[in-house]
Amino acid sequence: MTTVLTLIDGLRPDALLATDAPHINGMRQRGAWTLQAQSVLPSITLVCHMSIFHAVPPTRHGIMQNLYQPLARPLPGLFEQVQQAGLRSGFFYNWEPLRDIGRPGSLHYSHFHANSHDFIHGDRKLMQRAVRYVNVEKPDFLFLYLGSLDEVGHAYGWMSSEYLAQVSLVDGVVGEMLAGLPPHSTVLLQSDHGGHDRTHGTDMPEDMDIPWIITGPGIRQNHEISQPVSLLNSAPTLTAVLNIPSAPQWDGRCVEEIFT
Ligand SMILES: [Zn+2]
To answer: Rounded CA gap, 166 and 120, in Å?
Structure first.
């Protein structure tokens, strides 16, 4: 049983209702979900990922731009908690600044695929490698980051026809992933931030609202989450699913409402 975090960079929740996305919307029917989860400020990718993996706001982790710097006051993240518990993590990504979200030694395996301009095939190839890894190595936790949609947003604009077409394409990648994962996997699918025009980073709802959808054994089905959810809830929810301790330094808490 693998626990999977799949992150679609720059996915706006209203895009799931504005175009064909049967696989992600199907996860809502089979899981617990909200389309009103909140990003953090500034709503940009590395800042968001530091908050997702360390369950603290940017004011505490101190990363305020898409450039990693060693933390003034280091704290353990999700990868470190998994490793501390004697479990194994795999990390597949196609945006290189994410390489520092885990400390050296915390990963069983990582794979970076530099394909940011291969909008059509980049995410799919990465997903296929990740699924193969899961089925062979059976890690406890997998993080799969899909970066193409954010690139299309910057190139053509959020909610443009090109952006919505990419949402459908990435939805197909998610469908293929779900079909390829071992049965009884838990999958949390979320975004890091949304976007407007050809950018993001502000406190506008278009930038801040994100989808947060989780499916798996013991998780409620077709349940719209009523409690507030933010990026800070992801790591503690995943440690609860993995049945390992969260870090005492984390501000975020598990979204208890998702469990049956
Ligand atoms: Zn971006």
So the answer is: 8
Q: Tens digit of pLDDT for each residue in 140-180? A: 999 999 999 999 999 999 999 999 999 999 999 999 999 99
Place of tokens 């993995």: 242
Which tokens belong to 30? 């089979």
Distance 193 CA to ligand 1 centre (A): 8
Query: What is the distance in A from the centroid of ligand 1 to the CA of 245?
Result: 32
Specify the pairing of strand 141-146 against strand 3-8: parallel
Q: Give the position of tokens 């409402």.
A: 257
Q: Which helix (H) or strand (E) holds 215?
A: strand 209-215
The SS3 of residue 137 is: helix
Ligand 1 center to 252 CA (angstroms): 24
Ligand 1 centroid – CA 153 distance (Å): 7
Domains and CATH numbers, the chain: 3-258 (3.40.720.10)
C-alpha of residue 239 to centroid of ligand 1, in Å: 27
Best CA proximity match to 158, nearest among 166, 168, 169, 170: 166
The answer, as to whether pTM is greater than 0.90, is yes
192 CA to middle of ligand 1, Å?
Answer: 10
Find out whether 230 and 254 touch, Cβ atoms under 8 Å: no
- Dist CA 99 CA 164 (whole Å): 28
User: Ligand 1: distance of its center to the CA of 256 in Å?
Assistant: 30
CA distance 52 to 132: 25
